[in-house]
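Side project, low priority. Logging it here so it doesn't get lost.
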Amino acid sequence: SGLRRTADVFTAVDAFDRGALKLLSECMRSRTPEENEHLRSEIGRLREKLGFQIASPVGGIMGLGQASSRDIPVGRSVELVRTGPQEGAVVRGDVVRNDEIEFAIKLKEPTASRPGDLWRARYYSGLSAWEFDTSTVRCDGQRLVLNHSDTVQSTNRRRFPRVPVRGHALIAYLPFRQGRVSRVDVSPEGLQKTTWPAGGRPESEIPVFAEGRVTELAGPGLLVEASLHVHPGDRVLVVFTLDPGMAPGVPGGWGTIAAIGKVRHARSMDGGMSIAVELTGLSDTEIDELAYITAEISSRQDDGEGLSVAPAFGEVTRAAVVSGESV
């Protein structure tokens, strides 16, 4: 990259690009096309996370070109907001074709749109959000064909809408270091297995779950009420299931989700604590799924579709989690 201090490559965009181009040029002579394509994609993702100009995962010879609607993969979800005379109407769908010929969306529900109707499209990928203006080429009920756009704005999606939900949860404090010494014997010969009494378990080495309920969802953020005493910054393990009625028709909306999270804030309440958790270590696909579920529930709440929250919740037992049984 031509810098004296190598760390500056992460703050100087010109130096970053020079280094990236040099690396890719060298790899093109020794790696397979598939490996080079993966490397271009990773460099583009890193470039965007560093806050440089939008990096296209496939645009340009080195993958560092301006992002375009052509870069949205087939199968991914997009959100379309009408602009112009019918401003405000929102529809959602999945990309079914994206090439130089057409940018086609299969809508969740049929809609009417004439050629030239204006839309603002939003595409979410992990913590990044793309937004661009487009217009209708043609619409046949649930298949909407749009014009491409080479003017894409990208933002870091750190905030998600908060929606009230109902669901079951198990949450456990997960410290880096256990308070007691492990019962596994470490000797010069290596790890030695220990013999446990009949029915015995190394209780100090497994998470201890508290039962609770999920009351809010915001993408990878949760608000959990449980009888577990934790502090901001604590690491926790969360297993939760949303009530099927919260997001009917949403893939994964009622499945059990398990992830490690960090406590953002916690306050005492009657019978326990209200704990705000940010799930960490999630892949872009996993964040997208949680964001999609959040958006779908939010949309249904705006439409007033039967979202009264029941006062009572069923129980999720620790035995069910351990055995893998559905509850």
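Brief comment: The chain has a mean pLDDT of 75.
Revisit when time allows.
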